[in-house]
UniProtKB/TrEMBL annotation:
One of its GO terms (molecular function) is metal ion binding. PANTHER family: PIRIN (PTHR13903:SF8), PIRIN-RELATED (PTHR13903). Binds 1 Fe cation per subunit. InterPro entries: Pirin (IPR012093), Pirin_C_dom (IPR008778), Pirin_N_dom (IPR003829), RmlC-like_jellyroll (IPR014710), RmlC_Cupin_sf (IPR011051). This is Pirin.
Length: 302
């Protein structure tokens, strides 16, 4: 028998401005939800043409970007460049230092580029690793149907109902699923014991939990589960007008202090000061930042 996890809290992610003209619903890394290791930040972003995230540095974390609509180009100071489109993911390990730009495509209909970006902490021993990228294309993601076809699960990372994801993509162990439930459908997804887990709702209304603990949650909420238990249960009412869709994420908590200053995530205050100094003086991983400007970021210069 699985032990379903209770809901610790569920709250609406409020929209705010971020970057250059982007709109973001941030739910992790806010006063509502901090110290939720290994997760540092979760942004549900909407970037219209002409907006974006021009040249900026990172150190000490991994970012996982899941594009839901449109396309986003990226480019960094090591000469890496590429594009992810709807349904694709990019896993970026900042390690000892990266400087890059993430810029939306100019869609001909003027529509926004929409996606999720999750920041995951790196274990202390990997904070100084070399930066790296892995792209995961929509076509590579195993998709299964359960509950007589009422539930569709995209297995981005981890295991679900006997199916494994393609590969390990992050240094910190993380499971990620994109789950859509039709009206009347229900699902129970096993989760690793002791890992922290949450669900972010993208569409419809979904009831999470079981019995008297069941809570129905609307769009754009973060549902935070208790650490106790080994599964997550969700269902959508038979009379619902639309499917429920949510991203379910679980990760191995890291037993370490987090000291964050903007894009630098380290373990002590001194290491943060050092990161700022290294970035400004182009050393210890930021050598290539000197004089570097991305091609894609130039579209932002007015």
């Amino acid at each position: 028998m699985t032990v379903p996890r209770a809901i610790r809290q569920a709250f609406l992610a409020i929209e705010q401005s971020e970057g250059a003209g982007a709109r973001v619903r941030r739910s992790i890394g806010t006063p509502k939800l901090r110290n939720f290791s290994p997760f540092l930040m979760l942004d549900h972003f909407s970037v219209a043409p002409g907006a974006g995230f021009p040249d900026h540095p990172h150190r000490g974390q991994e970012t996982i970007t899941y594009l839901l609509k449109g396309a986003v180009d990226h480019e960094d100071f090591a000469g890496n460049a590429g594009t992810i489109e709807a349904g694709d993911l990019q896993f970026m390990t900042a390690g000892r230092g990266i400087m890059h730009a993430e810029m939306p495509r100019q869609n001909s209909d003027g529509s926004a580029n929409v996606g999720m970006q999750l920041w995951v902490d790196l274990p202390e021993k990997l904070k100084k690793c070399e930066p790296r990228y892995r792209d995961l294309r929509a076509a590579e993601i195993p998709t299964i149907k359960v509950d007589h076809g009422n539930v569709t699960i995209k297995i981005i990372s981890g295991q679900s109902h006997g199916t494994d994801s393609v590969q390990e993509l992050a240094y910190t162990p993380v499971w990620i699923f994109d789950i859509t439930i039709a009206p009347g459908g229900k699902v129970t997804q096993p989760l690793p014991v002791g890992w922290n887990a949450f669900a972010y709702t993208l569409a419809g209304s979904t009831a999470f939990g079981v019995g008297k603990d069941q809570t129905t949650v609307g769009q754009y909420h973060n549902v935070v589960f208790d650490q106790k238990g080994d599964s997550m249960s969700a269902e959508v009412a038979k009379d619902a007008k639309e499917n429920g869709q949510f991203i379910l994420v679980a990760g191995l908590p890291l037993d370490q202090k987090v000291v964050q200053y903007g894009p630098f995530v380290l373990n002590t205050q001194d290491e943060v000061y050092q990161a700022m100094l290294d970035y400004q003086s182009h050393q210890n991983g930021f050598e290539r930042a000197k004089g570097w400007k991305s091609e894609i970021g130039k579209s932002m210069v007015h």
